[in-house]
Amino acid sequence: MAPPNIEEREMYPASNTLGPPPNLPTHYQHMTPSPTPTVKPIPSEDSYYSDKLQNKERNQIPELGSEHDADIEDGGEKKKKRRMDDRNCCVRCLCCACCLPIWAAGILWFIIISIIIVVIVIGAIAGTFIMPTVDMAGVSTTPTTGSQFSFTGDGISINFGLIVAVNNPNLLSIDLTDINATAYYPNDNGGHTYIGKGYLAEQNVPKYSNFNFTFPFALEYNPSFDVDQSVLNDLVEKCGLSGGEKKDITIEYTIKLTAKVLVIKVHPTISSSATFACPIDNGGLTGLGDGTLGL
């Protein structure tokens, strides 16, 4: 170790005993230590490779959009959200159809297009459909089945045919099935009495036509329904059985049927009245057995 020079000897004189430590220089006495040590980050040795590594890691993480799978919180448990949960069923079906083989996708699209065409056709027909009109065109005294007169207990049944005129202005024909008719005879008091019925299993009405067909009908008179014999006396008078002039009779009827156009079926109920000539010829009945005319 080199011996101290002259200046050091004057600043620190030699002494055989240890004295107080020397005072610090003036510029050190006014400095206070920092309460928190400041650590300066050491720069990376090569910033180029560091940035490149960060970009690579960032590119490996997929960005989740609104249409991709996402983790959602539900009751404290994480569940996978399905990709097309927010789409309706038609969009999902179309998406699945695109993933099918060509032959399967072709069949599926054919079915879908066929359904759309059928719906359009049915809608067009329903939008232009006009209700056919039904009128009574007359009476056929020749019954369609059985004899004209038949006796049932205390009553009598008169079988004949009602000529029905149907005007169908529509593009398609109409199939009428299970045609049930019930007739009532009106009286002067505003009421009515059961007087007969008719039935026809089926009848087709062509398109764009004024079509007539014969509906089998039977006038059924039963004294138990006509207590005051008002219906009987009126029929005898209007049918000319008492020697007077023959007149038309009027009945009220209710018809229940099934009408079919293509695959559409409806069950209408028609209530109206009809006026036609009496189907009983003068001399057709010899009398009724209740004391008035006798059966």
Q: Report the major sheet.
A: 9 strands, antiparallel
CATH fold group of the domain at 133-277: Immunoglobulin-like
What is the count of helical runs? Answer: 6
Name the poorly predicted regions.
Answer: 286-295
DSSP, total strands: 11
CATH class of the domain at 133-277: Mainly Beta
Distance between the termini: 167 Å
User: What is the CATH architecture descriptor of the domain at 133-277?
Assistant: Sandwich
From the spread of the alpha carbons, the general shape counts as: elongated
Strand percentage lies at 25-35%
| Overall pLDDT | 72
Q: What class, by secondary structure content? A: alpha+beta
Radius of gyration: 54 Å
Which bin fits the share of residues in helices? 10-25%
What is the chain-wise order of helices and strands? HHHEEHHEEEEEEHEEE
Task: Kindly list the characteristics that best describe this protein.
disordered C terminus; Immunoglobulin-like; 295 residues; alpha+beta; 9-stranded antiparallel sheet; two-stranded antiparallel sheet; single chain; 24% helix
Walk me through this protein's architecture.
The structure is a single chain. This protein has 295 residues and is of the alpha+beta class. Among the domains are: 40 residues, no CATH class; 145 residues, Immunoglobulin-like (Sandwich), CATH 2.60.40. The strands form two sheets. Strands 3, 4, 5, 6, 7, 8, 9, 10 and 11 form a nine-stranded antiparallel sheet that branches. The C terminus is likely disordered.
